[in-house]
Amino acid sequence: MVAPRTAPLPASSGSPLRSTRTDGLPFPVTLERGGREPLHAQLAARLRAAVLSGALPGGSALPGTRTLAATLGVTRGVVADAYAALVADGTLEATVGRGTVVPVGAARSTAAPAARGPAWLLAFRPPPVDDPLPPAGIVFQTGVTETRMLDVRAWRQAWAAAARAPLPGGYGDPAGEPELRAALAAFVGRQRGLAAGAEEVVVTAGSLHALNVISRGLLPPGSRVLFEEPGYRAARQVLLDDGHEVIPVPVDDGGLTIGPDSPPARLAYVTPSHQFPLGGRMSLPRRLALLEWARRHDALIVEDDYDGEFRYDAPPLPTLASLDAGGGRVLYLGTLSKVLAPGLRTGFLTAPPALIPALVRARTLLDFGHPLPVQRALTWLLAGGHVDRHVRRARRWHAQVRAALTEELAPLAPHATLGGIEAGLHVCLHLHGGLEARDVAARLAARGVHVVTLDLYTLRPVTSQTLVLGFGGLTVDEARRGARIIRAVLAP
Fold this sequence. Notes:
By secondary structure, this protein is of the alpha/beta class. The protein has three domains: 1-113, Winged helix-like DNA-binding domain superfamily/Winged helix DNA-binding domain (Arc Repressor Mutant, subunit A), CATH 1.10.10.10; 138-142 and 390-490, Aspartate Aminotransferase, domain 1 (Alpha-Beta Complex); 152-387, Type I PLP-dependent aspartate aminotransferase-like (Major domain) (Aspartate Aminotransferase, domain 2, 3-Layer(aba) Sandwich), CATH 3.40.640.10. 36% of the residues lie in helices and 13% in strands. It has 14 helices and 16 strands. It has helices at 39-53, 65-72, 76-88, 152-164, 178-192, 207-218, 233-241, 284-296, 320-324, 356-367, 372-383, 386-409, 437-446, 476-490; strands at residues 93-95, 99-101, 138-139, 201-204, 224-229, 245-252, 255-256, 267-270, 300-304, 330-335, 347-350, 416-419, 426-431, 449-450, 452-453, 466-470. It has an eight-stranded mixed β-sheet, with helices on both faces. Helix 5 (178-192) crosses helix 11 (372-383) and helix 12 (386-409) runs parallel beside helix 14. It is elongated. It starts with 38 loop residues before the first helix and ends with a helix. Mean pLDDT is 89; it is low at 1-15 and 18-22. Keywords: Aminotransferase, DNA-binding, Pyridoxal phosphate, Transcription, Transcription regulation, Transferase. InterPro entries: Aminotransferase_I/II_large, HTH_trans_reg/aminotransferase, PyrdxlP-dep_Trfase, PyrdxlP-dep_Trfase_major, Tscrpt_reg_HTH_GntR, WH-like_DNA-bd_sf, WH_DNA-bd_sf. In the C-terminal section; belongs to the class-I pyridoxal-phosphate-dependent aminotransferase family. One of its GO terms (molecular function) is transaminase activity.
């Protein structure tokens, strides 16, 4: 590195140094005295740009330092330092007997730069998730939850406890810290009746992250996957982006329609507790039929229990994982996003012991595990019973919101009827009598109520005209006001 020298300036101040077409340079050079950059750095930048653009072609000889300094009205040291910096980074060459020259091939290609990256790069597609929340209005958004019922005191104590614990220099266990895995196993046993040991649990960053781990860790390239139609579009896209073949299978009030004629596949992805988005629950005969299908075709099942903690009008059916009873076919996905807050980005999966090493390997290569402070705070909340108490509070809160919503929308029959109301944090409003869901959604948006339509969740065209109303992030008052506007638009 060449140390810059201080160049004396002409007596006048506050104006550019000379800008002339100098001897040997086919372009003017302007240097600003008093600028943020030293004069030698300014000169180096101008010359570098000229070389890269081809204004100084390869093989061109630059003026001597004394000549260029005199022309620009700076000291020789300014030019010498600029030349030295450019020689050091390869922009110029200093050759004995020839002076300072531009190396051949230093100019950029004259071809237009690629505006979209490499030609083989796929065109950008936005992620298949809901748009950002509008700044105002009532938003019936799925996948979110209200956090006002959180115990703030316990929440702060949990993070204080995590902060007091020493932070090791390593990454920790990619499967999750043993204490959190044990706490999650106990939690899912209490909440969903699923008996699982800590060694069968892998901590994830939510259900979608868990599916990424499963897809990468277990499925051979190009695997066939049975998928609910309509279904969780982001999960479907994970499988498609990984190169798997997604086979849409219709659902009805009893869940995925599975039977002896169902096609073979490596995996089936289902949401049996509260089908997303239609809201039905898979009947016990269908659950048993799905397990039999997996046994017959040597397949796995992903059971995404994304909001299984919230049931209102009917007792929960046993999970597929508990019905499997040692069959080694079911991976159960749970999440704390709907229980506590989506921003925690924490969930878990349980899997048969034989699958755990492959899943941990995939988790290691994907991101090397979950943040330790988050794990420790959640362990404190789970072990102290705070999460269980929060679930009970949240269940009462959401039940009240759901009751207000259904009460306000019930008078819409026969113009529209509700479905999927027994559980979860969203309902479907099925439109009848020639009503178009997209048209209704647009009219609602004009009045400050934002909803999504069922066609967003399908691969094939749908004939059903349905609005999907997520109420997890609403208060009772917001749900009532939004429902009344829906009612006014549908039945004026």
